[in-house]
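User: For my dataset I need records formatted as: sequence, then structure tokens, nothing else. Please produce one.
Assistant:
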Amino acid sequence: MKHTLPGLAALLVCANAWAVTPGTHWAYSGNAGPENWAKLTPEFGACQGKNQSPVDLSGFVEAELTPLRLSYAAGASKVVNNGHTVQVVYEPGSALHLDGNTYQLLQFHFHAPSENRVEGKSYPLEGHLVHADKDGNLAVLALMFEEGTTNAALSRLWDAPPTAGESRPIAPAANATELLPESLDYYRFSGSLTTPPCTEGVRWLVLKQPVIASGEQIDELKGAVGHANNRPLQPLNARVVLQ
């Protein structure tokens, strides 16, 4: 069963972990690193925009944020290592309900160390659950990991994460709810994809309560990618972070 999102939305969602322009190589260091993403191709021009992610979440503004409403089913069906991240493909039928819209969960993936920071604090691992509505608008639910005991939800996904270029089925399919903390209180800001093409207008929802993963699990994810895969912090500029 295929996702029925418009082609643009599918490209944007894939862009959070895949380059969208065939033949355009990008990386996390060197000549194709973050400081040069906007110069690599016109399609990556947004990478020098004013509302980019990740950010250091600080200077919070108090707001009456609507409680997150999630309706996730067991849809994590395949794990892929694309060389930029370890990504879990999600089958249709799971959603985030926000601002009167329904955002379908399409995939989640990991960055080590964390991309976003909270009042200057970095975490060893961050997960991004990527959603899109029927018009291609994106919402990312971000999850911070602290080092501690073994994370059972990660263990459900793999014995060890796949190596670069490798894809494996997840059977039976797992439910992303298992990854989430007990509290779904969150920070909210407007940002972008954290990888090329760095498309802006993404609704970022960063959970306040971190979850735990073992040092071994975190190191395995780092080793599977082979390098740090966190984009440097971007300036908040005129944006505010709501809580």
